[in-house]
Specification:
The chain is α+β, with helices and mostly antiparallel strands and 387 residues long. It is 53% helix and 15% strand. The protein is globular. It starts with 6 loop residues before the first helix and ends with a helix. The protein binds acetoacetyl-coenzyme A (CAA). Pfam families: Acyl-CoA_dh_1 (PF00441), Acyl-CoA_dh_M (PF02770), Acyl-CoA_dh_N (PF02771).
Length: 387
Amino acid sequence: MGYILNKDQQDLVDLAKDFAQKKVAPFVAELDRAEVPGEKLYEIYKEAVDIGFCGLEIPEEYGGMGQDYYTVAAVYEELAKVDAGFATAVAASGLGLKPVLQHGNDAQKQLYADNLTGEKGSGFCAFCLTEPNAGSDAAAGTTVAVKQGDEYVINGTKCFITNGGVASVFTVFAITDKTKGVKGISAFIVEKDRPGVSIGKEEDKMGIRLSNTTEVIFQDVHIPADHLIGQEGKGFVYAMQTLDLARPMVASLAVGIAQRALDEAVKYAHERVTFGKPIIKHEAIAFKLADMDIKTEVARSAIINFLNTYYAEPKRNYTREAAIAKCYAGDISVEVALDAVQILGGFGYSREYPVEKLVRDAKIMQIYEGTNEVQRIVISGFLAAKK
Ligand code: CAA
């Protein structure tokens, strides 16, 4: 059945679907193959910002759309059906925004709102947690923020940063007290135009090629002390809380990929005739399609289960439900996309058809925002804590 939305929410999801199909889809194949994405991609990004897709969850009082996460997930799914790279760029802005929405003050929320609605910025932000030696072990980062009077000075290099090259503001995690381990990490706001901020190499990725992924380097970057988000020493917990909410949104991208793979496979199975009948009438194909449908629907249900938990009991810990949604949706998106390739056979393996790209796009769903191994660490941790 999927998301139960009111008319306004459904209208927004329909708008996202229409935008993706009319404005993104015609350029996906070309942009997926381009060495460097080029201006066309940035034109599409700008149109998306102007509509408000990067500010979906920003409360209306700050100039955002004030949408709930059911609607956000449904919008992301529609965008990802057409291109998961483009959807990743939009969702990564939501990721960078969340620590500020959860723990920032009014001025900080307004600063992000202005950036993400394109009022005073590119429309994109980025979440800078990962470092070359701190991926799954997120607490192992070495970026530091040293307090000097009424400023902090930030030094360090972040990597694999989605939107690194297009963001106008960064949410940066840095050590403020190295004697305190995870309790010595804090979260900061750093605008791109501050002296000492530079963008390093752009990753040449296997998939999600319509998203921009770069290193971001901070060299003696001075920021005002009021750019600290929340309290000093709480940065790691803020990052984890953000990921608890963001991982189910990644799951919605994975579901978008899986749904697209299923739709393409069903369409082909009706058209393709072997041994005198459409291949959908062959049990081997029909059952594979049924399994693809089951997995996609169950993955979407896992997101809804997370959201029901999140909204019904705001104080309840929802880390487990978030990890289950992300892990399951990430895994099945790869399986379903591979099944679509199998059903399309040689055509599925050819770049002339869209399904080989879905496999390449799906693979990252098991890696970013916490590998699925990390999700299993989190889930099994809850089991181990039970007597
Ligand atoms: N909510 C609140 N607090 C939490 C928490 C949560 N979900 N998870 C951990 N904490 C708290 C713990 O309670 C603990 O605090 P106390 O000591 O006071 O109890 C503290 O944080 C440290 O917790 P752990 O000891 O469990 O931390 P750890 O170092 O063992 O790491 C981990 C745990 C789950 C493996 C974590 O490092 C992790 O999630 N790693 C993956 C990182 C990740 O997802 N990176 C993605 C980057 S973003 C990205 O990919 C985006 C992109 O560009 C698209």
